[in-house]
Amino acid sequence: MTQPKTKLPIDDIIPEVVASLKARPSLVIEAPPGAGKTTRVPPALLDIVSGDVIVLEPRRIAARLSARRVAWELGEDVGGLVGYQVRFEDVTGQRTSLRFVTEGVLTRRLLTDPLLNGVDAVVLDEFHERHLDGDLALALLKRLQKKRPELRVVVMSATLDAGPIASYLDASPVLRSEGRMFPVEVRHLPYSPAPLQVQVRNAVSMLLKDGRLGQSGHTLVFLPGAAEIRRAMRECESIVQQTGVTLLPLHGDLTPAEQDRAITPSRQRKVIFATNVAESSITVDGVTAVIDSGLARIASYSPWTGLPTLEIGRISKASAKQRAGRAGRTGPGVVLRLYPEADYTQRPDHDLPEIMRSDLSQMCLALRAANIDNADEMDWLDAPPDAALRSAGTLLDQLGAHGDVASQMARLPLSPRLARIVLEANRRGVGEDGCKVAAFLTAAARTSQADLLSAIEAKLDSRTQQVLQQIRRIARPTLQTTHDDHALLISVLAGFPDRVAKRRTNDQVLLFGGASAELIEGGSNSEFLLALDIEDRREKPLPLVRMSARVEPEWLIDLFPELIRETNKLEWNREGERVDAVSALRYGDVVLQESTGVPSDSAAATEVLVEKALEAGIERFVDRESFEELQTRIEFAGLAQPDVASTLREVAEGLRSFTALKEAAGSFLRLFEGKVDQQALQRRSPVAVRLQGGKQTRIHYERGKPPWISSRLQDFFGMKETPRIGRDDTPVVVHLLAPNKRAVQTTTDLADFGRGSIRV
User: Fold this and answer.
1) Is the pTM higher than 0.90?
2) Do 695 and 745 sit in the same domain of this protein?
3) Shortest CA distance to 249 belongs to which of 279, 269, 266, 228?
4) Which of 79, 146, 194, 658 is most deeply packed, by most CB within 10 A?
5) Going by DSSP bridges, is the β-strand pair 500-505/528-535 parallel, antiparallel, or unpaired?
6) Confidence of residue 760 (pLDDT cuts 50, 70, 90)
């Protein structure tokens, strides 16, 4: 029996919706949360189409609850005329004509049935959230409308500007429902260093003491995720005893019964701790107060595992406004934001669409499965970045995602990496274990084990068990009669070809791309391994490998010969201080095999030797004082200094070690001096000078000092002039020595010496 319906704001425009879709195939509906668009528009379409109606929801909880609500209003059980289908769960039957599905479900349906036979209308709900699968679905539907112009496409949004979407859908009409909204007081709280759960407890206490909730109003607390919800509810337990309110969680991992407790109307005052699922996808009746943490888990992906992740981040202004609006549906409301107003003003107006910030490998896999090899062939609402497309294409190529393999991978509700593991494991006779690995990595199960095989051999938690059963039901692996760790690990490698690492020390590895990482205790103890789960750590310089698995080098050669390359290069052996020729078989930056020998290219070896010798310092190979004196002598002569490197290169010709270079370095000074004009050098900077008695005495050249000579006093008797050298006839400094060869005086004027000014 059809249930009596509460009048909702959207009901006023339902006749216009029907009339518009009878005239044109596309329509954009803009209506705020709580207007009733999700539950009233889809069933209205059943009256104007003969086939099925599919409604795309961004979240599983919204698909479940919306289907149940519409079924209840039609006097049906869910799974009859109205059903839902989400990842790993299908509650539909032969009579089901109205299906609420998550966005990825439609994408997989389009792969198996490109024309969507039997479907006459598709509704994209809450499109303002701009999920990646939603953008892909919209692009595929627009493409399909060219073949099936009668296919109705309805885009419904709460806050997104409808203009660009309407223009994208060939200038489709736009209908707006204003909804009901009572005044809402928004209050920003000052910054607090206290943990989030403590801030929530203080805010709840503040509201209850102010009497803002009345006798029946509920409080909706927006938190990033289930973990934060659990902590906040524990922190608020004391409030229950003082006020009698009921604390309830609301997030996607709860059972339907648990979700019902949170959203079902009740006279008992409730404080509902919810994720952003309650922001627009679900309406909770009776809410008069909202506490907004300003945070949400934002869809992203791990650069290490390549798997989808949710990272805590600040929400946009649009999301903050939607959260605040939840307090004004049934009467005047109040909102406490746990962040200053200055913080709010600096936030972006809207969240960046996922297609602009996410890993695109899943999307590109779907396109390949649909025989669309180039994403540029698609007409996008927002075109994806070229760099992200190239990165996704590279990964899919490494996974072998082409042709039939791509189609098989895309049909599985798994990331491309995990889908590849399941396919490879099934091919190698270990399909059930492959499903177990996929379930374990999908559910991100908590485990104390850091080695993959040990982790999956332990007892799996209930959530992982549930995911495993659903993967097995969809993948349908062949019966496995035995466990084969060898085959299973090869299958895991097939999904993570770019996560190969080589152990450097007991706790450090070199990764495929050349970076280093630390190993958590208890991981694989093999030399080569797969770094399956890597965590970036702000407080540490290196990321941490939290989960690993054994790899054998021959597997890499068998599975990925195109990634194997042989390198031959000269390397500096620090311990032996010599140049070696190193031949290596490499997988990325990971060396699988290596051999060392004598370089065949002696000229190249000489260049390396000279480079390292210059880094070590020329004084290691020649007498430093003699070299500096020669350089000073050349400088005094006003001549250009020869090139040290080229001189050293002549000495090092045919050599490859410091030992050999030091033995041959005796000729360096001779070669260095020979590179300047010898006549000019000798004329301007002679090596020695002749004294009065015919004695030759050496001229000393020191950096920062004038040239000088030294000899006994009597050697200078009779000399009227001080010896002069150089272009400017610079007088040398004379060091006069006593009989014991100790300097008694220095002078640059021997004439003064002749006048008896020198006293011993």
Assistant:
1) no
2) yes
3) 228
4) 658
5) antiparallel
6) very low
